[in-house]
Amino acid sequence: MTLNGFGQSWLRNKLQRRATLLLASLCATVALSPQTQAIQLQVIDPYLEMHTGPGRGYPIFHTIEQDAVVDVVSRRTNWYFVKDHREREGWVKRESLGRTLAKTGIPAALPDTRHGDYLQSQMRVGFTVGQQEEAETTSIVYGYRLASWLGLEAELGQIFGESIDGYTYGSSLMLEPFDNWKVAPFVSYGIGKQQWEKKEKLQVGSQQVHNSDYDFTGVGINYYIGFNFLVRAEMRAMKVKGRNDTVSNTAWRIGFNSFF
Amino acid sequence: MANRFQQLLLSTAGATVVLASPQILAENSEDGTIKINPIKVVEPDVQQRKVYEAGIDSEFFEVGAFTGLLSVEDFGSTNVSGFKASFHATEDFFLQSNFGQATVGKTSYERLSGDNVSILSDEDRKLQYYDLLVGYNVFPGETFITQNLTFNSAFYLVGGAGNTEFAGDNNFTLVLGTGYRVILNDWITWNLDYRDHIFETELLGEKKQTHNIEFSTSMTFFF
């Protein structure tokens, strides 16, 4: 056997072994995937308190002893519904359930959604209510955080004027430099379109619809409540391009968002 | 004696370590220059914590249908029905959106004037609304139906805004209200809601603010 031949057979053997391993691991994944077992955690504190409901004020009706194992069934906001080995069911606060061990002996890692996590990535949804000059506005907002200090948002809304009303849609970038503050200021810039229509009672003859583009720069404050709730106040200096001229508008808005 | 030997051996070992250690970091090469060895970084043997996101069933959304009574100022009371969806952000706060529709009745003026007088066409008597609300569970607690039958419940406040499309107009509407939620089991909820839809209208000549009270009940489902 030449050296070259030896090299080839060695390579072939190695590839075969790799392929077998890959196949085996694939089979293992397929075999395991249908089984979605409840997560079992072992209590390490002297006891774990079970509440009757997922919220403040719900009384503690049972405690689980140290070293006992609980099954985590479901989650509602930051409360977990757990079951002990005697089939007793109750709600445990996330902070308490965090003080448990997984089967592997490693501390339990529960999916956290709090301010810090939100800043790392994630999307958020919410709505705003406000005013653009004399007209009231409402909108639904969908946002995605590109970086801890930079967010991208899309919105769809309605404008209610005295004699005209319409729809608005746009997107904006939000810069939040002090991202770990509970009350965090931000600046924003965005572009969009507004579609105006004269109200029915004023219409004579044909429908009068006109579109106008806008862009704005804004400043505001984000106030983070709890783990994943956000209240926002924003002021926007808008430039609305009409058919012949550009009009400056000031818009105020308050928003409520949640992220997950 | 043993102590002497131990002392000797230990001091020799210590000296070796002291002598050897500079050699690890820096070496004198033959031409006199000092060659610095790169520092070895020891990776800590830490296992990544596995997050059980997929294994735990999260219940944040609540959707359902409602039906009730809506009193439209000047136009009497009528049935209202629609859909609602909520997102429970924290144990205290939730976001909710409602969509409802109703067909309003006649004003007193129309009723008194006989069949010939009608302010609105049948099409314009259709009222549709949507709202975007933020809710706060102000009194979470339990409801005792009998001694052995207890349900979790909450009394909540809601506020927000939306649109009421009525008589061919879009009206910016402020919504304020309260509600009572009884959680029947893991996923079924019964709600009783009281809402005030406030909007301005010029429908009957002069511009005025109208309060339109809604009282409704709904079944919703957590998922």
Describe the structure.
The complex is a heterodimer of chains A (260) and B (223). Chain A is of the alpha+beta class. Chain A is 15% helix and 55% strand. Chain A starts with a helix and ends with a strand. The N terminus of chain A is likely disordered. Chain A folds into 2 domains: 68 residues, SH3 type barrels; 143 residues, Porin. Chain A is built from 3 helices and 15 strands. In chain A, the strands form 3 sheets. Chain A has an 8-stranded antiparallel β-barrel with strand order 8-9-10-11-12-13-14-15. In chain A, strand 4 and strand 5 form a beta hairpin. Chain B is mainly beta and 223 residues long. Chain B has 2 domains: 35 residues; 162 residues, Porin (Beta Barrel), CATH 2.40.160. In chain B, 13% of the residues lie in helices and 56% in strands. Chain B is built from 2 helices and 11 strands, in the order αββββββαβββββ. In chain B, a hairpin with a 4-residue loop joins strand 5 and strand 6. The radius of gyration of chain B is 37 Å and the shape is elongated. About 4% of the residues of chain B have low confidence. Strand 4 of chain A pairs parallel with strand 3 of chain B, so a sheet runs across the interface.
